[in-house]
Each structure stands twice: as structure tokens, then as C-alpha cells.
Amino acid sequence: MTATAPGKIILVGEHAVVYGRPAIAAPVWQCVATATIQAAAPGSGCTLYAHDTGQQLRLGEGLAEEPLAIVARLALAQLGLDRPDWQIDLRSDIPIASGLGSGAALSTALVRAIFRQAGCEVDPATLSALVYESERFYHGTPSGIDNTVVAYGQPIWFLKGAALQPFHPGCALTIVIADSGVRSPTKETVGDVRTGWLQDPARYEAIFDAIGETVVQARLAMERGDLPGLGALLDANQSWLEELAVSSVLLRRLIEVARNAGALGAKLSGGGRGGNVIALVDAAAVDRVCAAFTAAGAARVLVTRIE
Ligand code: PMV
Question: Which atom of ligand 1 is nearest to the CA of 269?
Fold first, then answer.
């Protein structure tokens, strides 16, 4: 039994979304996590092999702090199963700790495969809620945006605690994604933003408001089909992320080369300090922006479309 789940990008609104402002995210099917389950010898129990990290987890042996084991146990409990004799293999080509939602994608593929192996399909709301439990370990205080966009597998307008709103931009967007190659755990940047917010709530609330307004304007720009306007809003969002101190010299450099190569706008995507940047491009600039990212040393470049 096999199941997959996509990576994701946050188009606008990361970090402020943790503090109740809206954000827009979309799945990235060009990179995926895959879970495969097969029956194992009777009495052998349930073992999970996470091939990308070399982890081997035997369910039922402690592992209280291990996100994949936690989410597997929750899914099995929901199905009324107690450690079936299964071998679970997890693989992913989504870079880890890079803002592309690799943790949420692995958990999503895992839960989906567990339900399929038990003979049923998990609905997206249940799936998202289960994956949220593992996100708490990756993120500390997750907004829930990653598990939602990955579990539903479609673009979303996300507001913490509100009912999910699927989102379709009025026009197709072409996004070039470049991996800086630097891993940066989301837990750390989210934690640092929280520390800053606790020290100076007024300043941080004002920045979160400005990001929230940028997200609202970005939605309007998409609905108008105004790609240059949307590009300028991505740039504005990046400026606010700089204010939150979640950017880096390398991310700034990648963003600059994309803009110089003709991108309509560019920003970091996800937790920041490392991970991926995204650039909004029109069809004529795709190859130029990809080449510019590669020349600037990006570890990997992907092109995705949001529609
Ligand atoms: O998993 P990442 O690095 O894409 O970060 C998710 C976005 C944040 O807003 C930084 C955190 C959150 O929980 O929303």
C-alpha cells in the first residue's frame, strides 16, 4: 500500500500567521513524500524505516518524542489497531528543515498509507488534525498551515482557528523555488520571533498587522490578475520578514539575483534563515530566473504552478 503527499510553499504571511493573521499557501507536487506499507512476519510488530534520515523506529518502544512514531500511533489508535505486523517505509525528496513542509508531508503520507492499509481512506480534516500533532514537535507552536495545505493538497487561504478556505488565484501563477541548501529548523525561527514579541509586543504586533494587510492585498491582486502588483507585495512581505530577523545574507542574495533576472517579486518562504526562496515570474523569465538561481549557488531549483 502506497500513499504520497506534496511539499508546500507559503506564498505570503508566514510567522504573522502564528499570531492570527491570514496567510496563503499552496502544495508543491514537484517534490513529494511517499509511505509504503507491507505485511511483516506474524509477531514482528510495526517497524517504521525513515530512509532519508536513516531512522528505524519500532512502534511501542518509548519514542514519546518522535513525531513520526507519535502520528503513526495516533492513526492506528483511531483505527482501533494496536501495533499490527507491518513494515512501513518512508521516503521523501523534499529537503528537510527548508520551509517546504517536509515534516508535514512525511506525516501526511504516513497517515494516509496507514488508513489505506487498514482498508479505508482518511478524510482531509481528520488527516490534517492528526498531522498537526506531529507538527507540534517540529514547530513548537505551529499555526496549523503546513498540515492543512499538505493534507488538503490544494491552495488555501489560512487563518488559525477558522474553517478552511480553499483558494484559487484568479490567474495561474508560475513560481520558481530555490533551495539555499542551508537547513534551518522552523522551531528556532518561530521561537526567536516569539522571544522578540514577548520583549516588544507593540513593535511585533505592528509588523504582523502589516504582513496581514500585505496578504489581503496579495489576494486582491491575484483576483485582479495583477501579477506585477502581486510581485511588489511579495517584495513588501520580504521587507517585513527582514524586520522580523528571519532572513539571512544568503537568502537576500538569492532574492536579489531573482529580481535582477526579471522576477516580478521574490521572498523567503517558510521559517526562514535558510531553506527556500520563491520568485514570481512570467513565462518569459522562467529560464532566466532558474539559471540565475543556479549560478548563484542554489542547491536545487524547482518550478511550480499555482492555479
Ligand atoms: O515549516 P515552515 O518552515 O514552512 O514554517 C511554517 C510557517 C511558519 O509561519 C513560520 C510557522 C507556522 O507554524 O505557521
Answer: 4
- pLDDT tens, residue by residue, 104-145: 999 999 999 999 999 999 999 999 999 999 888 777 789 999
CA–centroid distance, residue 48 to ligand 1 (Å): 26
Calculate how far, in angstroms, residue 158's C-alpha sits from the geometric centre of ligand 1.
12
- Cα(146) to ligand 1 centroid in Å equals 7
Residue type, 8: K
Residue 233 belongs to some domain of the structure: yes
**3-state DSSP assignment of residue 93:** coil
**100 CA: nearest ligand 1 atom:** 4
* Residue 163 belongs to a domain: no
- Alpha helices by DSSP H, the chain: 67-78, 102-117, 124-139, 145-152, 186-199, 201-224, 227-243, 249-260, 286-295
Indicate whether residue 14 lines ligand 1 (CB < 6 A): yes
Domain count of the fold of the chain: 2
Q: Which pLDDT score is estimated for 136? A: 84
The residue segments making up the domain with residue 46 are: 2-158
The reply to whether ligand 1 has any atom less than 6 angstroms from the CB of 273 is: no
